[in-house]
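Why do we care about 3D structure at all? Because function follows from shape, and shape follows, mostly, from sequence. That is the central idea of this module. The next example makes it concrete: a single protein chain, its amino acid sequence, and then its structure expressed as tokens.
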Amino acid sequence: MLAGGGIGSKPSLAPTASNANPPGPLYKGERFYSVTHAIPGRSKDSFVKLSEFLEQQAKAKKQDGKPAAPSARTAVSHAPEPSKKTLKVLRARETPNPNALQYVLNAQALSYGNKSYASKADCAGDEMGTALFDLNGVISVYVMDNFVTVTKAEETGWSPLRELAWKCIDKHVKIYSSDGKQDLGELAGADYRALSSEEKLKAVEAVLNRSIRSSLARDGGGVELKGIEGDDVLIHYQGACGSCPSSTTGTLKHIEKLLQQQLHPDLKVRSV
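And the structure:
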């Protein structure tokens, strides 16, 4: 029974002997209580469920301008805050070029193609590129897929440049818009000699995309096709490949071999 039946006093609930296990399937497993002060819509000394009694209390508190406490049967849930996707550097990875570091990001910055800057003037409003070239010793910035490669001058040490470049990329990196991806499949297996100048360029690009660029990207580098002069294919190395010693020997010969196998055996490759 509630002690002190006056209105305004705090009730204390106690089960009665007669209502400890009320009959009927509707009341199976419920606890009922006798209350001695009035609840709106019910007569004095009527039996009510505990959950209903608590609900009535909550309504009364709301009317008094006080926030109601959640009932035992009310699940309180809060919608999660929408997360803001932010590109960040996960790690700095060494490359075969001792003067280049590949900064691996937590997501893709460029879905297709690449961004290659050889000077601050090349950056064309790219805040990250501009900021990196403001660091002493940076001579090249290369963006592709989910990484940024920073190349330094040989006379410059990585301390403190390594950490400064990391912070700079973290602050300024963004998701870049990509140029439309070319469909080069129609040139697969075509007679190279019979192709037009434009088609030859597309055929070489197809081989570079299919067999070369993904391998170079793993080491933080890339290659750009600059043109074709007769049987000479002119390429320009990017990122970590730019000043890597192997780029003018082993890598160059590997590219040449693939072009000869897939397009024409007379092709030669020159780095410019």
